[in-house]
Structures are given as C-alpha cells and as structure tokens.
Amino acid sequence: MGTSAAPAADAAYRLTAIGCRAGAPADGRTRQLRASLLDEDDVIVAVSRTGRGAERLAAVDAARSREAKIVAIDQRQVTILRTARCPAQPRRARTRTRRRAGG
C-alpha cells in the first residue's frame, strides 16, 4: 500500500466512526477480493500517490465490473487510475491565483 496506507486507513476509520461500512486492506489481493464483492450501491475510494499501482488498478477494475462507484484520489492531474480505468473524468479543483500589483 506504500505511502497511501496511512491516509486510507485514517479515512476507513473515520467513515466507520460515522456508521459507514469501510475498510482499507493493506494486501493487494485482499483489496481486489473485497472490490469484487461490491455492488452498484457501494463506493470504492482508490487512494494513490502515483495512480499507477497494478494491484490498486486491479481492485478498481473489479469494482467497476460490479458497477460500484469509483472515487480516485491521487496527486497528479492525469493518471491511469483517473483516465484509462475510470469512466468518469475528474473535476478539477478551482484554484485562485493572485495577480501582482502593477502586472
């Protein structure tokens, strides 16, 4: 799970605390197995620094094949996780830019 392990475990803990069924399996095969048990009423949140981990992509594919909703969280604008594997394109966050005085 790499550097995404801590944020994923924290999110699962917080979701469980408010009454949601959530988990953050550390093992790639377990993630894929749990994703294959989801259905159209479920959501998978894929947390990845690079968006390219093969085991994570396999879990997302398994969830997508079961028609689960997919939320991809990573640090890059374009990744395999966001584009090739997920049917919906992410919305870009709106950012404000400051203009310098006189410019």
UniProtKB/TrEMBL annotation:
Pfam families (alphabetical): SIS
All copies of domain SIS, residue ranges: 1-103
Single GO term (MF): carbohydrate derivative binding
Protein's GO biological process: carbohydrate derivative metabolic process
Superkingdom to which the source organism belongs: Bacteria
This protein's name: SIS domain-containing protein
Species per Swiss-Prot/TrEMBL record: Planobispora siamensis
